[in-house]
Design brief:
The complex is a heterodimer.
Chain A: E1 17-24, E2 33-34, E3 37-41, E4 45-46, E5 70-74, H1 75-85, E6 98-101, E7 112-115, E8 118-125, H2 130-136, E9 150-156, E10 158-161, E11 165-168
Parallel strand pairs in A: 5-6
Antiparallel strand pairs in A: 1-2, 1-6, 1-11, 3-4, 3-10, 5-9, 7-8, 7-11, 8-9
Chain B: E1 8-19, E2 22-28, E3 43-47, E4 53-57, E5 68-73, H1 81-88, E6 94-97, E7 112-117, H2 122-133, E8 139-145, H3 156-160, E9 164-168, H4 177-182, E10 189-193, H5 196-205, E11 214-217, E12 233-237, E13 242-246, H6 251-258, E14 276-281, E15 284-285, E16 299-301, E17 306-307, E18 311-314
Parallel strand pairs in B: 7-8, 7-10, 8-9, 10-11, 12-18
Antiparallel strand pairs in B: 1-2, 1-6, 2-5, 3-4, 3-6, 12-13, 14-16, 14-18, 15-17
């Protein structure tokens, strides 16, 4: 697959993770709803999500960004928030699309990896925003700094299911 | 480019004329998606267009999460919000609302004593439906009304069970408010929503109660919460030649927004650096966690910034 042969740093990554939860919402502020699968469309986003290119209705839609096509969050952060800040954050509350376990998200910026049958490229770390505190009524802004997930663009689309593997290319 | 989304988009799915000059409006998402969550007795701002914004309590309970139900009594001498809703709003019409705010911190164990005047019952209908849904009966509602009360259909089981005391003040005496609360002086939550005279009497009756055990719901707009703790200062935008005064209730970012300046704000909390802006006169107050001391000499993160002096000049 020539299309995905980009210049990756010469580091071998040996992790393997799994998709635990999938969420989307059609419009800004509305609760995220859990799904057993999501349709990832290359270059556009997740069908039915508020940042799907061509149907933008998200909080940040007025500031287009390629890397907002799909967003990821680490399961391990739930445990860290509970341990360090006594905050219970639920999978539907962080407002990212894909909750993964065993994936070192903070080390993947600039890299491509497999998300189920899709291929994504990490563009930047997500930053928390005050907006989430307004929606949740939980003081999660500071605790989520550097733990707020990963923004990715979709290089090759496909159906993503809960339980799918996440692995390096 | 799309406009920034600042409100929740809803559609009017039902309008019911309940009589006694009151209409009930049901707002839903266009795809019947769940709406943002709320606490029992919370309220929303309803944006009616052309700057007309009015605040109404939600009548439904948090578990009923795919609709917002508000009840609006026409105030013929009011400021126009209720007349607009009564005369101009129809089924199918899109209406923008704020995220829900506030709500009643219900007493889990003790008795929740609700006192309502007329349409002021709305937040307590939400609270009662919330409690009833959980099979709890630790509340009583004292509700005065001139003539036939409306919205009784929403709390019919509570009325049937004798947990609602109705006072038709056209036909009977008003309740003795002090006596209602006297028997609960040692425990429980006291809450009131109604006309000014009722609120005053209620306030007197529970003046000795600790603050966490009393809740007053005002009909007036929500209290302005200062976004900044600095005195007002002048803001001049040198590139666009715009001038404004930044006040604590609006803040720097709100003032820039009002001036129509499209600053690329992202996190809104001073950590991402998206809104960094050059300043030439100040000195500014820096509250961000992004800029180095050297950068702060000529840049400001405006989403959390302010001015320590009387005039801030930004290169915008």
């Amino acid at each position: 697959m020539d299309a995905i042969a980009i210049d990756q740093p010469e580091v071998t990554m040996s992790w393997q993770g799994v998709v635990r939860f999938l969420h989307k919402t059609p419009r800004a502020f509305l609760p995220m709803r859990s799904f057993p699968s999501l349709e990832l469309v290359a270059g556009r986003g997740i069908e039915g999500d508020r940042y799907f290119v061509g149907h933008e209705a998200g909080f940040y839609s007025h500031k287009p960004e390629e890397g907002r096509q799909v967003t990821l969050f680490e399961m391990e952060t739930f445990e860290a928030l509970q341990r360090d800040h006594k905050i219970e954050l639920l999978p539907e509350e962080h407002r990212r699309n894909v909750t993964v376990e065993g994936v070192p998200l903070n080390h993947l910026v600039g890299r491509r990896f497999r998300l189920g049958e899709a291929i994504v490229e990490a563009t930047r770390l997500s930053t928390p925003c005050r907006h989430i505190e307004e929606i949740l009524g939980k003081s999660v802004f500071d605790p989520l700094i550097n733990r707020s997930g990963l923004n990715c663009k979709i290089i090759a689309g496909g159906t993503l299911r809960v339980g799918d593997a996440v692995r390096p290319i | 480019m799309a406009k920034a989304v600042k409100t929740v988009s809803t559609v009017v799915s039902k309008v019911e004329d309940l009589g006694n000059d009151t209409k009930r409006f049901t707002l839903v998402d266009q795809d019947d998606w769940e709406l943002p969550p709320f606490r029992p007795g919370a309220h929303i701002d309803v944006h009616l267009g052309q700057g007309l914004v009015r605040t109404y309590s939600l009548c439904n309970e948090p578990d009923d999460d795919r609709r917002y139900v508000i009840a609006v009594k026409r105030e013929r001498e009011g400021r126009g919000g209720s007349n607009f809703l009564h005369d101009r709003v129809e089924v199918g019409q899109p209406i923008s609302v704020s995220l829900p705010r506030g709500g009643i911190a219900l007493d889990q164990e003790g008795t929740n004593i609700f006192l309502a005047g007329g349409i002021g019952v709305t937040p307590f209908i939400s609270a009662i439906r919330h409690l009833e849904r959980r099979g709890r009966s630790n509340y009583v509602l004292h509700w005065t009304s001139r003539g036939r009360p409306v919205l009784t259909d929403m709390i019919a089981p509570a009325i049937e069970a004798g947990r609602v005391r109705l006072y038709d003040t056209n036909a009977q005496a008003k309740p003795v408010i002090a006596a209602i609360f006297e028997e609960f002086a040692g425990s429980g939550l006291a809450a009131c929503c109604g006309p000014a005279a009722m609120l005053k009497t209620f306030g007197d009756a529970v003046s000795a109660w600790p603050d966490e055990r009393k809740h007053i719901e005002m009909f007036t707009p929500p209290k302005v919460i200062a976004r900044s703790d600095v005195p007002p200062y002048e803001l001049y935008l040198s590139a666009s030649n715009k001038l404004a005064t930044v006040t604590p209730d609006v803040g720097l970012l709100g003032t820039l927004d009002a001036l129509g300046v499209d600053v690329p704000v992202s996190c809104g909390g001073g950590i991402c650096g998206a809104c960094r802006t050059r300043w030439t006169e100040g000195p500014p107050i820096h509250r961000d966690r992004v800029l180095s001391p050297a950068e702060r000499q000529n840049e400001l993160i405006v989403c959390v910034g302010d001015c320590a002096g009387q005039r801030l000049v930004l290169d915008l």
